[in-house]
């Protein structure tokens, strides 16, 4: 079974908790967003991140037109809507069990709680999303609606140990997850809602995975909010040149991160602007791209990318956390700078500088070898470091784009052509950046000729 989920929203976690209770395993795909309101906010702050692009490429709409998370795929059955997913799993894997007992009286009670829970969660989302995600002022009316629901639950739980009957059921599992979310908006159960507080403590103990998942959700939310704050408060300069492949690689990554308030400072390398004392004072190696982020000054495009990935906590899989996948990504990035870029430069610098078409035979042979290596990496996965788009794809896409400008024939490298098409499809701004570089290229060659 496949489950599309996200760790932060309680409904997704409810399904994971149920899966643990029923000993079920899923192929998990984390999806960052689905809610129109949340999507709009995330689009501004994170949704153009590498992962968001990737996830959008998964096209949840094709899987589940309701675009709700969690979404379960069980054979040819596709179920969206949290409660429907929970019911599906319980009916299929715990029929006659205790979570959803057959007795009509109990079931009706469970249904009542589930419908109530939908409304409670809706009230929570309506109030909390703008406050927590958009950091807007709290809406008193929405807050009161939420508190009214909570007061309803408080009355309902009077004298009850569990929500629907004399033992733990789906009703407790669902309600407990929604209630756990109140923490985020600092609504304390104690002392105002003693029945809810007592019941919550009790049912929480019946879900072994609850605390661990809640901890992970809190951590993910903290990271998300920290990233959001940094995104909105960021101010950085990037010195670049559109003809420079590493500059293009970085520009591509930035456009996918949505770091829009970057101030791009173009340096005319042929005019020697990079050698101006003011720039050399910033970067004694006088190369582009160079990043100035407050006190942090960095050059080497790949080092800049890793810095941004760390600072803005680019999520999986764009910046893998797993050491092996991270190492593979870094290996490709070192290959990019130490082998690929070098082979291209050695093969083409003479041609670019002199305008003569012939390439040194040894350099051309070396480049062919290196391109075959890259083709080989790409035969092992969809992207340069496995099956997911990572930072390494941005660095190598930037480097490889120079071959497009010099019209290097790549047709014999099947995988490279496939991957370049994939990059152009998945990386926001790829086409625009290439068009810009193509437009600048003849001017660059002309100025170069004049200079020589
Ligand atoms: N490995 C470096 C290469 C940087 C580099 O060589 N930049 C060139 C343009 S592609 C440059 O700025 N050249 C001007 C100079 O060094 O004076 C990176 O990835 O950032």
UniProtKB/TrEMBL annotation:
Assembly and binders? Homodimer.
Q: Which family does it belong to?
A: Belongs to the GST superfamily. Theta family.
Q: Which residues form the GST C-terminal domain?
A: 103-224, 322-444
Q: Is Isomerase set as a keyword in this record? A: no
Q: PANTHER family under this entry? A: GLUTATHIONE S TRANSFERASE D10, ISOFORM A-RELATED
Domain of life where this protein originates = Eukaryota
- Catalytic activity annotation: RX + glutathione = an S-substituted glutathione + a halide anion + H(+)
In what residue span(s) does the GST N-terminal domain sit?
Answer: 1-97, 234-316
Task: Name the species this protein comes from.
Answer: Culex pipiens pipiens (Northern house mosquito)
Q: Record's InterPro entries?
A: Glutathione-S-Trfase_C-like (IPR010987), Glutathione-S-Trfase_C_sf (IPR036282), Glutathione_S-Trfase (IPR040079), Glutathione_S-Trfase_N (IPR004045), GST_C (IPR004046), Thioredoxin-like_sf (IPR036249)
Q: What PROSITE patterns does the entry give?
A: GST_CTER, GST_NTER
Q: What's the protein here called?
A: glutathione transferase
Supply one GO molecular-function term: glutathione transferase activity
Its EC number(s): 2.5.1.18
| EC class name | transferase
Cite the entry's keywords alphabetically: Transferase
